[in-house]
Amino acid sequence: MKLRALAIAAFLFSTTLVSVGSGAAEAKSKMNVQPFGKTSDGQPVELYTLKNKNGVEAGIITYGGIVNFLKVPDHAGKFADVVLGYDGMDGYLQDKSYFGALIGRYGNRIAKGEYKLGGKTYNVPKNNGENSLHGGIHGFNSKLWTAHDVAGSDGHALELTYVSKAGEEGYPGTLSVKVVYTLTNSNELKIDYSATTDAETVVNLTNHSYFNLAGQGEGDILQHQLTLHADRYTPVDAGLIPIGELASVKGTPFDFQTATAMGARIAQDNDQLKLGKGYDHNWVLVAHEKGKLALAAEVYEPRSGRVLQVLTMEPGVQFYTGNFLDGTAHGKAGKVYNQRYGFCLETQHFPDSPNHPNFPSTVLKPGQHYHTTTVYKFSVKP
Ligand code: BGC
After folding, report:
1. From ligand 1's centre to the CA of 151, what distance in Å?
2. Does residue 298 have an active-site annotation?
3. Which of the residues 13, 32, 318, 321 has the least number of beta carbons within 10 Å of its own beta carbon?
4. Which of 131, 207, 324 to mutate to test the pocket of ligand 1 (most atoms within 8 A of CB)?
């Protein structure tokens, strides 16, 4: 009896090993890597293609950690690339829209390019009128990241690392950043951001993908139906800096608590919409709980049936309707990107937090570990 039990145990053990082994081998299938041109100082840029078992593909380049393409199916199973971008490095080197890029150290704006930390005043570049936007002139979107294929049981995964030296773009502390893009078999593009510092600093990382669920370059996004799980937003001044108030969305064009077309109220006579030239504001997410993923937004595009859900650990999301796109960018496959041809849902801490003690803190101290996750999940409705 004992022997038989041992034999069964040994058999089970060996089959477990075989199945774990083959499963891992399947998950660990190598990502495709291709050259993608050069940076302005001649360094080679690579394009990694993550693919899942449903045929969904995400292309990430090592310059700016940019999501270059994202191909997902519609209700009929037809694939389209649903993010805006460029066919080559020339476009990205001239880009002013941050298509698909990783944003840091500080996503969104810092008023007058100035903030206080530990009793000291820090100045960061004013690259957006009198304010600092998306980490300054040479933000993380323009850096070359080191890439490693770290595929796991969850699917294809690409790890990108970058060390931002103390003082870079005016920010104190050497910041070591790691971003992992995972394409899961549930059609999710998961982005895990982590960072550590050797001196007190501020951090607010995000991704700046512009989506068009009908396909990139396929018209404006005004018919996309948006639900935002947020009951308040942060109204802004003329420079798009929050005035400090968390205002209720109730009875305003900022109420997306039930699905509403992005374009339904965008042209209303509303001071905040005028300041943003459309939607370009931060919403306060109701379900936010530190360290937990919560549903922030859902978008449905009626023609294709594509649905995008955004889950995040962040307290806020910047909903931006591509108000500054003006048709001058030469997009992928010869497409022109006119105003409102893409929307962004940039998960984040609130803009200008270092100057607003009442906002959730963006301070990172030595010994602390910055970690935040955002998931862009795709599906279809018939
Ligand atoms: C900002 C917009 C800006 C865009 C591209 C968004 O995050 O809120 O005002 O035009 O990024 O730079």
Report:
1. 32
2. no
3. 13
4. 324
